[in-house]
Amino acid sequence: MDNRWSSAWWGYLISFGMILVATVAGKLLVMMPIFDLHNMAMVFILCVALSTYYIGFGPSLMAAFLSVLCFDFFFIPPLLTFTVGTQQDILSLLILFVVTFVISCLSPKIR
């Protein structure tokens, strides 16, 4: 198999793993009284920024999309559904996606 393809798949796998670790860690941190639910969005933004800078554009776009899905599914009430309860949460998800998308698009230019 060509090394170009195998390294690309590793990038996607690493980005997926970063979002997975952030989600699990976030579920533990949200139980603490000092960690607010919307602070979890910042953790996802950090994962996307690191993915963009170190791995590349494609994996970071996947991480941006997965971060919004995980934030909605695991952190926004009602939990474990893709239903969004309030308009404020819809706005939060939209802003999270726009910010992570912009980071994904601009970081390769910085690198």
Report helical residue fraction: over 70%
Overall structural domain count:
1
Report mean pLDDT, rounded to a whole number: 86
SSE order in H/E notation? HHHH
Span between termini: 28 Å
Q: Which structural class is indicated by helix and strand composition? A: mainly alpha
Radius of gyration: 14 Å
Q: Note the main sheet.
A: none
Number of strands: 0
Overall geometry: globular
Notes on the protein architecture:
By secondary structure, the chain is mainly alpha-helical. The chain has one domain (3-110). Helix content is 78%, strand content 0%. The protein has four helices and no strands. α1 (3-30) packs antiparallel against α2 and α2 (39-54) runs parallel beside α4. It is globular. It starts with a helix and ends with a helix.
List the helices and strands and how they pair.
Blueprint: H1 3-30, H2 39-54, H3 57-75, H4 87-110
Helix pairs in contact: 1-2, 1-3, 2-3, 2-4, 3-4
What's the short version?
With 111 residues, the chain is an all-alpha fold. Helices cover 78% and strands 0% of the residues.
